[in-house]
Amino acid sequence: MSSSCSFNSQLQKLKGCLDAIDIGQMQSMLDAALKVFGDAIRSNDPILVCGNGGSAADAQHIAGELVGKFFRERRALNVRSLACDTSVLTAWANDVTYDTVFARQVEAYGQRGGVLWAISTSGNSRNVLAACMKAKELGLTVVGMTGEGGGEVAEFADVLLTVPSRDTPRIQEMHLMLYHYICEQIEVAI
Q1: pTM for the whole thing?
Q2: Model confidence over 1-23: pLDDT tens digits?
Q3: 57 assigned to some structural domain
């Protein structure tokens, strides 16, 4: 096994990403996201979360933490992962196109005052972009969570949480840290 695949090497790559974060700027973006989420929660407007692959798993994780609980008992929050309904996903992808599987659900479940939390490590996933476009059309606020640069999601995001990496595993590891922070802060605030 080469040294580039060692656990220490992986830790060093993650540490490099963490060290590259501008903490002040990231805190500012997290505060902006928390305000958006807080406004939706206070109004019981939906927070819709979407992403593909590992980001789909993150969307489900986020919804699980916020519908259920993160640290403490509290009321359930109106949060839905758009990656969970396999009947909707597979029927729409088969009959129409996979490119709009999330946009179709934003149309069904979204409402003005709600939030679309769009997760894409590259920021260029076509179906996530289509969901962002539909969200903007319907008056939802878009919180994007991406890797370095934000990709095309940056064009649609009202709040953009980017992490300083273009390496998918590092981006996903840092996204986990960000959304755990957000989940914890939401619970503190409600």
Answers
A1: 0.94
A2: 455 679 999 889 889 888 999 99
A3: yes
Task: State the DSSP string of 34-45.
Answer: HHHHHHHHHHT-
Cβ proximity of 84 and 58 under 8 Å? no
Cβ(112)–Cβ(139) below 8 Å: yes
CATH number at residue 42: 3.40.50.10490
Q: Residue 16 domain-assigned?
A: no
Of 67, 91, 92, the closest CA to residue 81 belongs to: 67
pLDDT digits (tens, 9 = 90+) for 32-59: 999 999 999 999 999 999 999 999 999 9
Report yes or no on 143 lying in a domain: yes
Phi, psi (rounded to 5 degrees) for 60: -65, -40
- How many domains does the structure of the chain reveal? 1
Query: What is the domain extent for residue 148?
Result: 22-189
| Among 179, 140, 170, 155, CA closest to 12 | 170
**pLDDT tens digits for range 67-104:** 999 999 999 999 999 999 999 999 999 999 999 999 99
Q: Is residue 2 part of a domain?
A: no
Tell me the β-bridge partners of 50. Answer: 118
Rg value, the chain, Cα? 16
